[in-house]
Amino acid sequence: MTSLAESGLALEQVELRLRAYFDRSSERAARHSPQYRELWRELRGAASGGKRLRPRLLLTSYLHLEGGPLEPAMEMATAIELLHTALLLHDDVIDGDLERRGAPNLVGAFAAATAQTGLPQSQSRRWGESAAILGGDLLLASAVRLTAGLDLERDRRQRLMELLDESIFRAAAGELADVAYASGIGTPTAADIRDMMADKTAHYSLELPLRAGAILAGTSGELEERLGAIGSSLGIVFQMRDDLLGVFGDPAETGKSTWNDLREGKQTMLIAYARSSSTWASTAEFFGSPSLAEAEAQRLRGTLEDSGARARLEEEIRRERDAAIGLIREAGLPVALTYLLVREANDAAERLG
Fold first, then answer.
1. Cβ(304)–Cβ(280) under 8 Å?
2. How far apart (Å, rounded) are the C-alpha atoms in residues 50 and 72?
3. Which of 102, 106, 165, 297 sits most deeply, having the most CB atoms within 10 A of its CB?
4. Can you give the pLDDT at residue 351?
5. Is the pTM of this model over 0.90?
6. Which residues pair with 104 in a beta bridge?
7. Measured distance CA(295)–CA(207) in Å, rounded
8. Per-residue pLDDT, 331
9. Checking phi first, is residue 193 left (phi over 0); if not, alpha (psi -120 to 50) or beta?
10. CA separation for the pair 73, 46 (Å, rounded)
11. Percentage of the chain surpassing pLDDT 90?
12. What is the pLDDT of residues 50-85, one digit of tens each?
């Protein structure tokens, strides 16, 4: 059986583990209030769907690096997916979003349900946000618990705990920087924004699973470092592409609004590039406006085009993709893993969602 086939079967087992986790938690919640049972129902929905990028990267790297028993790898992959969902829930609260992937998120679902009972909108929204914060905390704690309980020798388990802790620590640093920039606390350069993306998204999304696969497989610290550098570079590609699609993408294909980032005043590399041009001042007043209308959003998109910001970001995406591919090819990885990671790099640069 090839590593690719094994990876697919292992990923199916991760899905079963996630299902079992939510089944157990829902049974526990049944002893409490109806609202708590509903929270777990929504948490199950929040963790459903998606491409399972993080578990897939962990399992693929682990198997191609000739890892041994699959049990600890599948358990760690489950923990990382719970971490991912937890961070998305908290991010929705911080960003004030009511939707994700074109449908109500947990905040939106809880708020809508209570609004129908006549509760004022402000209180309904606070209720939804409180539920999402608590839900994210629950999943975050479970991710740590699963990692701490891995059936591994102490030193390897400790390395994985430290890696998970670093991901959470850096995600919080990146999130805080993101909020600071959007709030007008300082004017970030493109380099500042890149650092923020590396902390907020790249580390936990790609560096964590690739490093974890290497640790689980018992590889050298040097190979783990090389995989970490690859993951960091790939994560930057993913985030830059997401930011581009957040303004110029097709919502029907991406499930992402092309208004939210502009309305919220999200500081991306696209904006940093535009801000350095002479054309930015003509539409800067619309950026970050809570009442942004489509006509104004379209004018902003026009400025981002005319200033050369879009072309510059697209070129930076291609440059970063090429840098990631260079790291992959120079890392001394198994041929099959090299091929798969190069494909990930190309998909990250060209993907539509």
1. no
2. 22
3. 106
4. 54
5. yes
6. 99
7. 39
8. 96
9. alpha
10. 23
11. 82
12. 889 999 999 999 999 987 899 999 999 999 999 999
Cβ atoms within 10 Å, residue 195: 15
Joined together, the tokens standing for residue 173 give 């640093």
pLDDT for residue 230: 98
Q: Mention every residue, 6+ apart, whose C-beta is less than 8 A from residue 119.
A: 127
Instruction: Give me 129's structure tokens.
Output: 């946000």
Q: Are 173 and 199 in contact (CB under 8 A)?
A: yes
Q: Tell me how far CA of residue 121 lies from CA of 43, 169, 181, in angstroms.
A: 22, 33, 28
User: How many Cα atoms sit within 13 Å of 285 on the Cβ side?
Assistant: 1
- Give the start-end residues of each E strand in the chain: 99-100, 103-104
What is the pLDDT at residue 155? Answer: 96
With a cut of 50, list the residues of the chain below it in pLDDT. 1, 352-353
The string of DSSP letters for 95-162 reads HT--EETTEE-HHHHHHHHHHTTT--HHHHHHHHHHHHHHHHHHHHHHHHHHHHT-SS-HHHHHHHHH
Q: Is the dihedral of CA 37, 27, 165, 79 positive or negative?
A: negative
> What one-letter code names the amino acid at 242?
D
pLDDT tens column, 116-130? 898 999 999 999 999
- Per the structure block, which two tokens stand in for 306? 């005319």
Q: Which burial class, exposed, middle or buried, applies to 187 when counting CB atoms under 10 A from its CB (0-12, 13-18, 19+)?
A: exposed
Instruction: Indicate the average pLDDT of the chain.
Output: 93
φ/ψ (deg, to 5) at 151 = -85, 75
311 contacts: CB under 8 Å, gap ≥ 6: none
Q: Which of 105, 72, 85, 54 is nearest to 238 (CA)?
A: 54
Residues 98, 113 contacting (CB under 8 angstroms): no
